[in-house]
Specification:
Blueprint (H helix, E strand, L loop, with lengths): L2 H11 L3 E5 H13 L6 E6 L6 H10 L2 E4 L2 H9 L7 E3 L6 H10 L2 E4 L2 H10 L5 E6 L21 E2 L3 H11 L3 E5 L10 H14 L7 E3 L17 H19 L4 E4 L3 H4 L3 E12 L4 E5 L8 H5 L5 E3 L7 E7 L7 E9 L6 E4 L20 E6 L2 E6 L4 H5 L12
Parallel strand pairs: 1-17, 2-3, 2-10, 3-4, 4-5, 5-6, 6-7, 6-8, 8-9, 9-10, 12-14
Antiparallel strand pairs: 1-11, 11-12, 11-16, 13-16, 14-15, 17-18
The structure holds pyridoxal-5'-phosphate.
Length: 404
């Protein structure tokens, strides 16, 4: 998105501000879908990356399904107009009652443990399920988001397939799908190819299966030189493997994916204003009007978000530590070469479309910022900044005689 556009939006709506380029999201979606040459394909937007209702509506209009990890997300999806049959519920470690709710809402169930499988089979006989398999492959860029390895809490071990079959046969559970999600930030698409071989061997065990869901974990570049998944190349290679399997089985399975980050990350820009430029003995701090309450990925995952001074594109470049206003270590980026930063300049954080607003909090009793979507050149406010009312609306004052 143009620097001038972002500056104008910062002026119009104030900062801090999340800005999303809807046209880029649509382009990412089409790029993803067009990468695959298979008979049947369905792409589910993994909405935990960004659950703003307008973004959900955009993906609905594009023809995507929705991947949800909680009943809250399912309800947002229904509000956005997704039919229940286009919603995949892929939770982990939930109360049984949440399965009851999901079944009542009519969404597709992705079961990730044997207890839940037995529960659903007994309590809701005949309900079709998808089964999440853990193939025990180490993949992913960060321990916290690596979810397929041996000690992962996700999925049912591929070594337990005989047990799954026993439960499914005895309780007459229709297994309509097999799912694998090996983790975020996979470096190498050959991981998918290897996972697919394992998963195909599982699919062969369940004659009712009509879709195979390969989750997500596609990597994007956060900075120059980062490895990223070449989606068109991956699509070509993977389609071949998938089509071969369909041919071998004599059945046209539906290929499913549930990308989040790769669809929305690079469409987001987080705009902050510089409150203070502070020279210390060791460095120059550029302190902005935000913190890890609004964008926690650098502090939580050591994630790199590119930062640009969009107010002073021709300024001499200097090295800065960009920090927030939260009262503990709150570093967005160390040793960043930025065009000279002055008080009131606007710093733009890139790749702010995924896992940024979605992970924001009210720490330090700060309000979460507004969000704006630019659709076909037109800007739309899609969430207002919070107010003190939002911070206090759920508080209950006990009626006590005396506090001391
Ligand atoms: C988080 C998640 C995704 C999306 O992962 P990205 O790395 O954002 O593409 C997909 N499927 C499941 C089950 C997830 O938990």
């Amino acid at each position: 998105m143009q620097r001038e556009t972002l500056l104008a939006l910062a002026n119009k709506y104030g900062t801090p501000l999340y800005v999303y380029d809807a046209d880029r999201m649509a382009e990412n979606y089409h790029n993803f879908v067009n990468a695959f040459a298979v008979k049947k394909l369905k792409v589910y937007y993994a909405c935990k990356a960004n659950t703003n209702l307008s973004i959900l509506k955009l993906f609905r209009a594009l023809g995507a399904g929705l991947d949800c990890v909680s009943i809250g997300e399912v309800q947002l999806g229904l509000m956005a107009g997704f039919p229940a049959s286009d919603i995949m519920f892929t939770p982990n470690n939930i109360a049984e009652q949440e399965y009851d709710e999901a079944i009542a809402l009519g969404v597709k169930l992705n079961i990730d443990n044997l207890n839940a499988l037995e529960y659903v089979g007994q309590k809701h006989p005949g309900t079709p399920v998808c089964i999440r398999i853990n193939p025990h492959m180490m993949a992913g860029g960060n321990r916290k988001i690596s979810v397929g390895h041996i000690d992962s809490k996700f999925g049912i071990s591929i070594h337990q397939v005989p047990h799954i079959k026993r439960v499914v046969t005895n309780l007459n559970i229709p297994v309509e799908g097999i799912h694998v999600h090996t983790g975020s930030d996979i470096l190498d698409s050959s991981v998918f190819i290897r996972a697919s071989e394992l998963i195909f061997s599982v699919v062969e065990e369940f004659p009712d299966v009509d879709y195979i869901d390969f989750g997500s974990g596609f990597k994007i570049a956060y900075k120059e030189g980062d490895l990223f998944t070449d989606i068109p190349a991956f699509g070509r290679e993977f389609s071949k493997v998938f089509n071969d399997f369909c041919e071998r089985m004599g059945k046209d399975y539906t290929l499913k994916f549930e990308p989040g980050k790769v669809l929305v990350s690079d469409a987001g820009h987080f705009l902050t204003k510089v409150n203070l430029v502070k020279q210390t003995t060791a460095c120059i701090f550029a302190g902005v009007n935000s913190g890890f309450n609004h964008l926690i990925r650098p502090m939580f995952y050591d994630a790199h978000h590119a930062i640009d001074n969009i107010s002073n594109p021709k300024g001499d470049r200097k090295i800065y530590n960009v920090v927030g206003y939260i009262c503990e270590s709150d570093t967005f980026g160390s040793d960043r070469l930025l065009n000279e930063v002055r008080k009131d300049d606007i710093l733009a954080f890139r790749n702010a479309g995924a896992y940024c607003y979605a992970m924001a909090s009210n720490y330090n009793s700060r309000m979460r910022p507004a969000e704006v979507m630019v659709l076909k050149g037109q800007d739309h406010l899609i969430r207002t900044e919070e107010t003190l009312d939002d911070l206090t609306r759920n508080l209950v004052e006990p009626q006590v005689k005396s506090w001391v």
